[in-house]
Fold this protein.
Amino acid sequence: QVQLVESGGGLVQPGGSLRLSCAASRSIFIIDRMGWYRQAPGKQRELVATITSGSTNYADSVKGRFTISRDNAKNTVYLQMNSLNPEDTAVYYCNAHPPIRNIWGQGTQVTVSS
């Protein structure tokens, strides 16, 4: 069973950047599509970005600002977030896509505020 640990969140000013990491306890090579999700207070969890061996996809709200990448050798998925705005404030999670219910991690909090 894969376990996922997200890190890299924090408090950042509008316009700033953060790089999130998602470390897996076992090889994620066999999971073709990985994704980053986020959940803002009072809202449902939403898909932010996905990556396969050959392509990436992004929600319209983050397109052009966020970049997802993966390093299968390190069992890690990354999310580079630039030009952050307050609407990006949320807890960020990684998982397969579609998500596997029982491997959600604790997430990492991202707060964008001046």
